[in-house]
Request: fold
Amino acid sequence: MKMSERKRLHPLSIFFNVLKILKDALWPFFLFIFSSLLQGNFGHLIWLLIGIPAAIGLAIGWGILSWLRYQYVVEEGVLKVERGVLFRRKQYIAHSRIQTIDVVEGLFQRLFGVVKLQVQTAGGQRPEAVMSAVSRKDAEQLRWLLLGQADGQPEEILEVDWETVNPSVVEVNTTVVEATPASAGHFYRLSGGRLFIMAITSGSIGVMASFLAAGYSQAGNLFGDDHILSLITEWLFDVPIFITILALFMFSWLLSIAGTMLKYYGFTIRVSGEKLHISRGLLERRQVAIPLTRIQAIRVVESPLRQPFGWMSVYVESAGYGKGKGESTLLFPLLKKSELGDFIASMIPQFQVEYILNRLPQRSMRKYVTLHTFIALLISVPFCFFDPWGYLALLLVPLSAAWGFVKYKESGWTWVESNRMFIMRSRLVERTIVYIPKNRIQYFKLGESPFQRRSELSTIVATVASNGQAGSSFKLKHIASEDSSYLLTLLRP
Amino acid sequence: MRNVPSQRLDDRILRVWSIVGMIHSALICLIAIGMTVLTIIFDLPWYLSVIAIAFAVTYTGFFVFLYPKLRWRRWRYDIHEHEIELMQGVIFLSRTIIPMVRIQHVDTTQGPILRQYGLASITFSTAAGNHEIPGLSLDTADQARERIAELARVSREDV
Reply:
């Protein structure tokens, strides 16, 4: 498989070019319309009759030109991309620098049987090169030429795997949940039932609900019954304002559930050729590959909504990879506690460890509880001046103190000598256990505030390389100073 | 925290930090003066200008005299064969260990004020951010840079 002649993208990319140009041109148009309306100069709007077709025509012309100019070729393991209409750009990316080539199938791409390729290099925040439409055959060839040696097999196998999944049924207490665990070997797939659970328990709901509650309690004051907004909603929908807010909230919640389900539909992870291959999405099918050797740390996260039911999600910190935090780094969205061991053993065996966490000393409890009480007081006391019900905000204080206590109770750390692995558990909102192999630590920091020094406590921070310049830091507060000093000597290379 | 690192920064950095302190103190003082002028022009309560001036004076005193001393007294470092250790912080004390293997490149840099005093800073970067040893004499800095570069190269070959 040689590819020495220059190639163009699939013509569908013209369509994407045009779309992008039109999208960028939208704001000026809005501005024009808006200003014309403001000036009451409706006559100006006639110009739109000429302007819009002209813009579309120009966009199409430009789109075709960009498509003609965009050429790529692989020569001696170097991806050479030439593009640009006015400003011409030549991009050379050596295959040794390429971390991953993501395959994305958007809705339009799927209709035309093409894919979008995103070439990622180490240290890059954004994809180095984006090919908006490449035929499947060309995409495979490209991946094979640039990554092939490491990847082992062409991608068709993925397709077969998806078809042969055989969901089995596992009974969990009172609910029946579909799952396809380790039986399929080095292969996990998120079942429909779990997808749904994942969507309804996904993070933002709790936060949104509390904001809404707080907002509503104040809305009564701000928008009295005769306030203009109340009048408008009552006139429009024939319901009081709080029902409208509630309905809006329900609607946005449903929307977020649908969004999550679309995004993570058919989440599949399998290991092959020293890489983890993840694919997900309904309308836009996204495939990513993470080299096992690039994995810096693993996070197991239990959010408050999932923890009571024993659900957890697994994240990975990986060097030189990923765009948004917590999105592309999701290894598996929803696992039962009992399945975690098998999952790690089959997917990321280097993180298979047995351990018992060391708890924090008794004296650090005071730190956690005091801080939480203090913050809650700061927030809730001003409310007491508002109206009689403002005193209810004081309820926050014991709740927050209890939260601090839970944080103290759940925090812990350990060092596993046999695996040379450092493990930390802490909670902000979600309970997180992080597994960091010693040789992945970029730097280790021990900090002491004056308050901590008095009680011989300190804060430890372990930082690993991850997407972006700063890496990812994992922090554990109020660990006994003798323990942190011990860790400091231990983590010396 | 026992066995703290042994090396200190060059004490000429005290002067440099004082000068840097003067520069941003000057800004704060200008703002304080501006506020005083405004209170006179618009006949605002007198204590506003008193607060502003008191703040500016304290700020200047702290950042020109006290803070550089405290900072220098705390700052220590060590360049070992396998790791670099830093200790710093005036109120919040921190100790950082950076394994040699993780160091990607080392630079010495000199700003205009540092150059005036024959000093240089060493900056070394890891895949997760940069670290700095701020004020060493030019010779020490050059030696340290060579040493770190050499050690980092050796330990990389080991792995």
Observations:
- Residues 122 and 320 of chain A are 4 Å apart (CA to CA).
